[in-house]
Amino acid sequence: MKTRKTAKGFTLVELIVVIAIIGVLAAILVPSMLGYVKKSKVSSMNANAKSLFDAAATAIVEIDSEGHTISGDTNGDIDAKTDDTAHFKTKVAQFFADIQQLTVAKVRVKDMAVVAAVCGDANYGGGYPVAATVENYATFKAGDAAALTAAARPATNNNQQQNQQANP
Length: 168
What we know:
Layout: H1 12-65, E1 76-79, H2 88-95, E2 104-110, E3 113-120, E4 125-128, H3 137-142, H4 145-151, H5 155-166
Antiparallel strand pairs: 1-2, 2-3, 3-4
Helix pairs in contact: 1-2
């Protein structure tokens, strides 16, 4: 009786087909995964901006309770990393330890109340109360007056809606 040896394994054609399928799947999935990474980084910067907003608000309450003002005025844009008038920078750092990891950390103050915060690193930016999106995060990353204006919630629309509801 003759025994026949059977070849085990994959043929070269089968291997090439599998590699081609993996290549097509990678070409489809990699760009969408990069989009998720960008979205995640922008979301992280928005969370940092919220933390900066809360830390700055708490610092201003403490400064006000001590009888001081910040930057000699109660209105303006403040760099939370460098402005240490009335120990503002120090107090913000107490409540937001990750501030040193950011390249931009600025808040807008009106009547001794924080109305907007923006922060960013070398690549991404975020804001609060209006959050940055994947389309406009570069504006927030700059941390200039335009970024703070973009992050500030327009109060006039809310007031108009409340007045219309109260007086139909």
